[in-house]
Design brief:
Strands 3-2-1-4-6-5 form a six-stranded mixed sheet, with helices on both faces. The chain is globular, with a radius of gyration of 14 Å. The protein is α/β, with parallel strands linked by helices. Helix 1 crosses helix 3 and helix 3 runs antiparallel to helix 4. The protein is built from seven helices and six strands; from the N terminus they run E-H-H-E-H-H-E-H-E-H-E-E-H. It has a single domain, classed as 5'-nuclease (Rossmann fold, 3-Layer(aba) Sandwich), CATH 3.40.50.
Amino acid sequence: MKIVIDSNVYLSAFLTQGLSNRVLDICIDKHEIFISPWIIAELQEKLKKKFKVKQPDLNKFLNFIRSIAKTIEPRGDIPDISRDKDDNNILFLAEYTESDLIITGDKDLLILKKHRKTVIINPRDYMEMYYKR
């Protein structure tokens, strides 16, 4: 499957060893993951400013993310669907890459349930619906 992982799932995976970390591990093994420069910039900003992650650790994390996900710069018009305008960047990437899933904890995205052919689910639903042991 083609998957877009929202920044909040990456952040949770990086900062805790919980469900999002497990979901990320499974996605690395089983799926094609897409990321955009916009998501990378958001991760960098939040880790640096909000969580005060030191530059060496930030660099390691960002290099890791770039190694596991294919960086795509979507072209065209960004959709105007989500009530949080920033979330439209996630939808744009999923649309552009024709992804099957967006995995997110963001309520503004989850309320949509689907964008075009892309299903929008949270990490727990991913584990219940898509992960076959």
